[in-house]
Amino acid sequence: MSGAPTLLWFRQDLRVQDNAALAAAIERGQAIVPVYILDEAGEGAWRLGGASRWWLHGSLESLDRALRQRGLRLTLACGDSAQVLNELVAETGAGAVYWNRRYGPSSIARDSAIKTDLAARGVEARSFNTSLLFEPQTIANKQGRPFQVFTPYWRHCLTLPVGAPTLIKSGALRAPASWPATRPLESLELRPTIPWDRGFHGAWTPGEEGARQRLAQFLAQAVAAYGEARDIPSIDGVSRLSPHLHFGEIGPRQIWAAAAELGRERGVFPANVGVAKFLAEVGWREFAHHLLYHFPQTAAQPLRAEFARFPWRADPGGHLLRAWQRGRTGYPIVDAGMRQLWTTGWMHNRVRMIVASFLVKHLRLSWTEGARWFWDTLVDADLASNTLGWQWSAGCGADAAPYFRIFAPVLQGEKFDGEGEYVRRWCPELARLPARFIHQPWAAPESVLQVAGVRLGESYPRPIVDHAKARAEALSAFQSLRA
Questions:
Q1: How far apart are CA 291 and CA 79, in angstroms?
Q2: 328 and 271 in one domain?
Q3: d(Cα 375, Cα 293) in Å, to the nearest integer?
Q4: Phi and psi for 222 in degrees, rounded to 5?
Q5: Does residue 240 have a pLDDT over 60?
Q6: Which residue of 150, 188, 380, 421 is 20 to 30 Å from 431, comparing CA positions?
Q7: What average pLDDT does the segment 20-31 reach?
Q8: CA distances from 141 to 144, 163, 400 (A)
Q9: How far is the C-alpha of 416 from the C-alpha of 229, rounded, in Å?
Q10: What order do you get walking across the sheet with 124-128 strand by strand?
Q11: Cβ–Cβ < 8 Å for 19, 253
Q12: CATH code, domain carrying 236
């Protein structure tokens, strides 16, 4: 319909720059009506967790500000996406609805139905890729099947071109003559009183500008040493871009272009180890979406079907799980990680692997328990990455660590937090222990514990499981599965 505005449906693409659907809406040449719909029922079993809701509130605030600076505003709605879109089409007289694709199983089915319904009503419905470098349906191995190992997957991807980010010019956005009704952001109740959000505000700046600043800071200060520094949780050696990427406040093409530009300036791209390692981590995110797209059942079921029979431990009353969740396992590197998560909504990736291994191998509790906890407490809770990470730790997914690879928490702590700086920060009751005992306070002489003010079983718990015994039981369980 000539002159009919375009509804621009935002989801996990909460930015203006390098937004393919927005660029297409500008090209269409009509007024643009941006809308965000909180459709919790449409997410199925994976409704937003508490930490993600906190982040979304700030991200929507940021997006609305950015749009208003360009003469537009964000319409907020709540309810069934298809119904709300149809109501907005009727209210605005829109002739087109544009959006950027998502790749989770519920999103694919919902989007397909919406596209069919809109087309039947005579409304142009188009979707675009703005969240991945390589869409899952476009990548296959030589046999035409999905990759299940990261290295050949990423090697193949590196042979493909990466598109340049799309620059959105402010003057190109046309506002409608009138705006549809909108809900106040507060009415979405994305920031209810939750017990762990107090530390979020000082740790994060949700929104497109926060993402841009974080990328610039990381590339300027940390990427050169990323190859080594990314494994040390006590230093700011990683990008911390994961929540910004998840909510689409920055896109992978923008990250790729910025890294490439830095390399050209320094004459090191792509040979620089830090840059290459960092882009490979972006590649792991791509791989996670590739796997979830092709194996949608893995959000709740192991990719390796034999693990459906794995003898997970019964935990009457949930005592072991709660000790892990609260950072009270008696293993300092594990407890520090879980407390960092609870306080900031984020955990260093190296420590994520340690705490995940502890849950599924020392406590022998199902990886699905950990995935659910991370889903609720991580600001970067992403279904694809969360699924890949937990199945990797449990040994039941693609390119997974073998189940018999069991991280020893004391050795992991000593290797990646040798002086105990990370543990001292997040477990302050252990801060006065000498470095040689910081990762195994139970091994310290009583005199050392007294000087440090540590009372095992009181101020800090004794280990809830014995490492050697837990390791033997985990290996036995794995052997029974193989038999």
A1: 29
A2: no
A3: 19
A4: -130, -20
A5: yes
A6: 380
A7: 97
A8: 5, 22, 18
A9: 10
A10: 75-78, 32-38, 6-10, 96-100, 124-128
A11: no
A12: 1.25.40.80
Does residue 194 carry a pLDDT above 80?
Answer: no
95 and 144 in a single domain? The answer is: no
Same domain membership, residue 277 and residue 263: yes
**Number of domain units in the chain:** 3
State which residues form the domain around 249.
Answer: 132-164+207-294
Parallel/antiparallel/unpaired status of strands 6-10 and 96-100:
parallel
pTM: 0.95
155 Cβ partners below 8 Å, 6+ apart? none
User: Which of 9, 37, 55, 40 is closest to 244 using CA atoms?
Assistant: 55
Are 335 and 270 members of one domain?
Answer: no
Cite the active site residues: 281, 284, 312, 349, 367, 390
Per the DSSP assignment, residues forming a β-bridge with 127 are 99
Nearest of 11, 20, 10 to residue 164 by alpha carbon: 20
Task: Mark whether 288 and 316 lie in a shared domain.
Answer: no
Q: Are residue 73 and residue 136 in the same domain, yes or no? A: no
Over residues 28-77, the pLDDT tens digits come to 999 999 999 999 999 988 999 999 999 999 999 999 999 999 999 999 99
Please identify, among 294, 315, 342, the residue that sits at the C-terminal boundary of a domain. Answer: 294
Can you list the alpha helix ranges (DSSP code H) found in 11-80? 20-28, 50-68
Considering the domain architecture, whether residues 326 and 464 belong to the same structural domain is answered as yes
Residue 336 shares a structural domain with residue 273: no
Mean pLDDT of 456-460: 97
